[in-house]
Amino acid sequence: MTIIKAYASPEDADADVSKSISAREAAILALSLSLDGIAVGFGAALAGVNAWAVIAFSLAMGLVALKLGSWLGNKAADKLPFNISWLAGIVLIALAVEKLL
User: Fold this and answer.
1) What does DSSP assign to residue 82?
2) Tell me, what's the pLDDT at 73?
3) Three-state secondary structure along 2-47?
């Protein structure tokens, strides 16, 4: 599998269709995604984007999302009479499926 093919279709990174990614397949996928990050960084630099502003904004939004999610989760857990800890797993799976689509 080539790096370009792995980037274009990450779900096809499992070249031997074993339902698990081998070390070689993971390395190819990681390399293709790293090259994508380099290309985005290069393009942002050419456009004159302030890297420190992007880093600060990303950090701030991540912290806000984390605090908001924690607050909402605690509120829901206090109000519901049953355990909803399994909901976090469903949300993570839904996010992974969304990334594939």
Assistant:
1) S
2) 84
3) CHHHHHHCHHHHCCCCCCCCCHHHHHHHHHHHHHHHHHHHHHHHHH
